[in-house]
Every structure is written in C-alpha cells, then in structure tokens.
Fold this protein.
Amino acid sequence: MARRSGGIKRSSWVTFRRRLFLVRQLLRAPASAEELITKVQTELGENGYPANAAAALKHDLDSLKGEYDCRIVYRRDQGKYVIVDLGELALLDPPQQSLEALALLDASYPAGTGNPVHAHIRALLDQVIQMLPNRAQTQLQSRRSAARQRVRSGRIDANVLTAVRQAIEERRELAFRYWGLNDGEAPRRHRVAPYGIFFRNSGHTYLDATLLEVQPPGSDQLFADLDYRLDRIVPGTAQVLPTPLPPERPKARTWTLRYRLHPEVARGEDVAVLFPDTRIEYGDDGSALVTATISNLSIARDVLLRYGDRCRVIDPPELIDMIRETVDAMGSLYGSPISSR
C-alpha cells in the first residue's frame, strides 16, 4: 500500500507541474492545442502527455478552470487558447507601496506607444498585472489617473534603433542626420562614437555618444559627450560605419569655470553642486565663488542662465561671450525697455 501511495503522490505532482507549465506558456502568448502539447512533451519528456494527448490537454485546462477559477478561452478566429484571468493562481500580491510604484509605471507606459523599447516595457507590465489578484488589479485601475505621468515620447524609427544598437554592440562609429534644437532649416550630419542607450523621466530615449564630426560645422564642441534623442534622428540616415571605436572614450577639451552667486542664492551656504570638481568659497557678504571643471560650454551656459541676474561668470572668456550673445538675443525679442515714469 505504501508503494501505491507514493505512486499517487508522484502522479499528482507530475500533473500539477504539467498544469503549471501550461499556465506559464499561456502567460507568454496565446497557443494552439498542438503548440501546447509539443511544448509540454519537450519540457517534461516522459512526464508529459500519454498517447491521447489532446484529451489529456482538455482535461488539464478544464481542471485549471474548475479548481483554480482560471479563465482560459479558446479563440476560434485564432485557433488558440488565451488565458484571461489567473483566478486563484494569481500569487503576486505586492504591498501597497509596490502597487503604487506599479501604478506609476502602468500610467507612464501606455499602450500604443511609438517607441519600440517602451512597447517592450508595456508588454512586461501587462504580464505583471495579469498575475495580480482581481482585488489588486481593481486598486491599480483606481490609482491610474492619480499616477498619470504623461510620456511625451516621439516615434523612434525601428531602423534607427537597430542601427544604433548594432553600432554600440560592435563598437563602431555611427553617422546620422539629426534635428538639433538650433537646426532650423535642415538637419545636420553627425558622426559619433556611440556608447549606450538610456531613458529619462521625460519619457524620451537618448543615445549617449561622443561627437566626432558635424557637417555643416557650427559652434558644436568636438569630442564633447552628448545626449541625442533617438526620435530626432532622421529615419533612413543612420549608418553604422566600418571605423572601430578607440580603446578609450575620446576626451573633450576642458575649461576651468568660475562664477559668483549673489548672497540671495548662496544664503545658508547650501549652494548646489552642478559641475565636476566643484569648490565653493563663501564670502563675508554672503556670496559664493564657485570653481569647477566643464567640458561643454553650451551646457554650462544653459545651467547658469537659470540663476538669471543672481550669477556672474568670471571664467572662461568663451563662456562669457556665449552668455552675452544669448542675453542679447533674448533682449531683441522684447525690444527696447520701457522707461520708468
């Protein structure tokens, strides 16, 4: 009798394992009966289905529905089974703080995005949500509007993304035409050393690259580390070049930056560190003299202009000239100042 009991226990375990494997396969994608049987036989071997596999598969699916309240439907138009609801097999039940984080991700990556990478994230989220109990899914729905984070991602051309990934993986130079913020009439051709793809909270996808050449030339700093928005690369222009990347990333020219902050900004001696190698000296009048190292004049200009007239750049001269040009251009937008009466 003991041997018979052991056989029953093993049979029950094999059956449960087979049914759990079916659930995992249907969570991956809808599948036909033939596909499910083939995958079970490949995965479980002698513990798979007997000779009448079709009848055994139907019995397994019926048991999942009856014992665990799984909703598995057969889509006749596709000829495939689809799992709609895991029922009691929905074992992922995160705490409230994790559910809030999931709601933020769910709202941040809506379906139908033009970004192929975001589409993969969306597919992963759908799988995770499907593994939640119905109660948790209802809570997630209610939190969606509160957690809405608008993703202003543009459409990234699939061929552009393929070329960028290939250049990064093969460590080869990449060329493309790019719509920069100052390219009003036509995109310019950039030749870069690509190093990675990353995302920002704005919802945009960027290429981390070092600028090697740009045509027509402008005020761009060669060998500067730049972030290129992938949706601004002109479709059909991305080209992986045969030139390999150097062993070490090219270094851009650097400048010593010095600027003084007004006492209103430096009050409390808690000035923000915005650049590498920052050193801060506080004066008796409450102002702050900041010294740092920069490798991109344009970025430094944009950062320091946020202080308005509470910041005065002392060095380098090239940055002072850029700020003067920017301030003059801004002033021309508003015309002559109105004299006070």
